[in-house]
Amino acid sequence: MEIETRSIRVSAAFVKIADTLVGDYDVLELLHTLVEESVELLDAAAAGLMLAGPDGVLQVLASTSEESQLVEALQQESGARPCVDCYVTGVPVTVRDIAGTEDRWPDFRRAAATQGFRSVHAFPMRLQGRTIGAMNLFRTETGELSDEDVAIGQALADVSTISILQKKTASESAVVNQQLQDALNSRIVIEQAKGMIAHIDDIGTNEAFRRLRNHARSNNKNLRETAQAVLNRSLTV
Q: Label partner for 79 (CA 20 to 30 A): which of 45, 88, 106, 111?
């Protein structure tokens, strides 16, 4: 019964994602849905998606927590983290016990420990032999992922890649680079709007992002348009 229930949940998640891909979809909204579904399906505490810009530097594009600690655990400041290894090698990276990594990723280990994360699993976002980023799952317990979990995690990472690059042909490298930069630029606008809302209303960044996202959904606008309106002071959420 448990296997059947999980199978139904996985099918429902991919149907939901497929529905979101139809028409003129909002890429960032879809990516946030993807990381939320990955947490539910793979029994994780948090998830984050990182994208490499044309310069090859990884940046956080979507996460299940807008608080700075999770972002800190994902960032590439030292250039040595599981998500970076996943991006560089183009293969999944599993760290069953973060505390046991010793001196391999000291900054990452400390950042993850502050949030109670004890294991991390990274999946490459790949297109035609090129890796454009990585999706990362954090768990509060140590341990490996099952083969089924790895397959589901990689499928979610693949859908993330498709959602970013599907709208235009990706046959030319310049086109791919522009699409990646557009996605990252949208995230910057959203971060700025989120910070403005949090400051003006004296609320946390999670709540600020929730309000921004809810307003975009209820008014059939994409996240970047809504964030830009906030920054222009033509919208209060």
A: 45
